[in-house]
Amino acid sequence: MSRHLAISTDNSKVCKYPDDLDPNRLPSHVAVIMDGNGRWAQARGLPRMMGHRAGVEALKTTLRLCSEWGIRALTVYAFSTENWSRPEDEVSFLMTLFERVLQSQLESLIKEQVCIKFLGDLEVLPDKLRELIDEATHSTSRNSGIHFNVCTNYGGRRELVLAAQKLAARSVKGELNPELIDENIFASELFTASEVDPDLLIRTSGERRISNFLLWQLAYAEIHITDTLWPDFDESSLKEALIDYQSRCRRFGGLDRINSNHLHS
Ligand code: IPE
Ligand code: IPE
Ligand code: MG
Predict the structure, then answer these.
(1) How far apart are CA 121 and CA 211, in angstroms?
(2) 191 in ligand 1 pocket by Cβ < 6 Å?
(3) Ligand 1 in contact with 153 (CB < 6 A)?
(4) Can you spell out the DSSP letters for the chain?
(5) Would you say the CB of residue 170 lies under 6 angstroms from ligand 1?
(6) In this predicted structure, what is the pLDDT of residue 188?
(7) Which among 251, 253, 237, 255 is positioned nearest to 30, based on CA atoms?
């Protein structure tokens, strides 16, 4: 079966499902570039940090809704490999915020059966944050609910380079014939190894770029860009993104059904 097909699984568990969405055509995997926290705060005359704090609330709502509506995986961009270039006080605020949120939310993640993973180069994160990440990953790994992937110190290029290094090391050891490296083997060395590719990418705050996010995995994702700033992203914004997704015709390089029937008639 194609890795890209959008299949909604186990709709029996879906509750409070919006009428105007087709439960059988939900994306399996939604990826989000949560952008615009700083502008949200600046527009209110607040320090940028308040925008990040408000962004956490939007993330909680999005995770809850995706889980309730039966979406299998949600992958969010929390901190990029390029975000270290921000002022030191903003970077350290963000690291502390991640720690606090993990600490305060772990119980509810476990209760809601969320399976949380952190994707990125985690080695260089502060020790306390790494400990909390290990604890959260470990204590939710057997949960049966939504896969919630938080990209932290994540860069798409870095991920590709690391995958190439791992494959090269296996080849040097004689474990892997370089000629046998195909797309599946390559994908198995990415941080997202166990996940299907995202069907839908949402970017908030109106920016029209990928900013080094999931460069490999987004190959055939549908892209929804909204001017809404991340802290304002709510139930109606998510519904709008999903309705937009359901209006798309995904061809994966082939032809849509009408054209291919036409050719065969
Ligand atoms: C996204 O919001 C959050 C992170 C990158 C951590 P920004 O902080 O980029 O907000 P803007 O783009 O400056 O408004
Ligand atoms: C992308 O947003 C990274 C995250 C949302 C974590 P940025 O604000 O860092 O991206 P650019 O600088 O606008 O491309
Ligand atoms: Mg930004």
Answers:
(1) 17
(2) no
(3) no
(4) --TT------GGG--S--TTS-GGG--SEEEEE---HHHHHHHTT--HHHHHHHHHHHHHHHHHHHHHTT-SEEEEEEEETTGGGS-HHHHHHHHHHHHHHHHHHHHHHHHTT-EEEEES-GGGS-HHHHHHHHHHHHHHTT--S-EEEEEEEE-HHHHHHHHHHHHHHHHHTTSS-GGG--HHHHHTTSTTTTSPPPSEEEE-TT--S-TTSSTTTTTT-EEEE-SS-GGG--HHHHHHHHHHHHT----TTS--HHHHHHHH-
(5) no
(6) 98
(7) 237
Closest ligand 1 atom to Cα of 78: 6
Tell me the CATH class for 22-246.
Answer: alpha beta
Contact 97, 78 (CB under 8 A): no
pLDDT of residue 259: 76
22 contacts 189 by C-beta, under 8 angstroms: no
Spacing, Cα 51 to ligand 3 middle (Å): 11
- Taking only the tens place, the pLDDT of each residue in 82-92 is 999 999 999 99
| For residues 71-75, average pLDDT | 98
Point out which residues pair with 223 in neighbouring strands.
201
Across the range 228-254, mean pLDDT stands at 97
Residues with CB under 6 A from ligand 2: 33-35, 77-80, 83, 207, 209, 211
Q: What strands, in cross-sheet order, belong to the sheet with 115-119?
A: 115-119, 147-154, 73-80, 29-33, 200-203, 222-225
Q: Where are the domains of the chain?
A: 22-246
pTM: predicted TM-score of the whole model, two decimal places: 0.93
Per the structure block, which two tokens stand in for 181? 């490296």
**Phi/psi of residue 162, nearest 5 degrees:** -60, -40
